[in-house]
Request: fold
Amino acid sequence: MYYVVQVRSGDEERCMLEFGLRIKKDILQECFVPHFEEKKKIRGKWVVQERILFPGYMFLETDDIDELYLNLRTIPRLTKLLGVGEYIVPLNDEEEDFLMRFGGKKHLVEMSEGIIEHSQVRILSGPLMGMEGMIKKIDRHKRKAWLEMELFGRTQIVEVGLEVALKTI
Reply:
């Protein structure tokens, strides 16, 4: 099962390495920080870069949350495991499927490509295919889209890369 850990923004990668070193593989099967691709113009050229998809959050896969929790308490950078009240709650099946479909095994949301026809977004390729209804805002010049979705028991605004090749009126 997948669990969400809240850490200080900017410490995600460092915490992921520390968790990997301090926690046994039989307790922590996987620890990851999802990223997304974005295009930035640097010195006149468009360059693809990776950025953290959910700043301040990490994802852990374990079958023994109690043992994992005891191990995590020894790590000073950990803020908290997300849950409801005093209970640590895993991601539900829908959230887990979404993360795996959206980022894949590499946990990387690649650039999507689409067009805007008569004020309607149509995604032609990439992980945003079929998610047009979740897109709340598009910035064609920065090549980004913002999605609104339910994750971790709350509404999240998620920034991803989107190349809009054509806009018709």
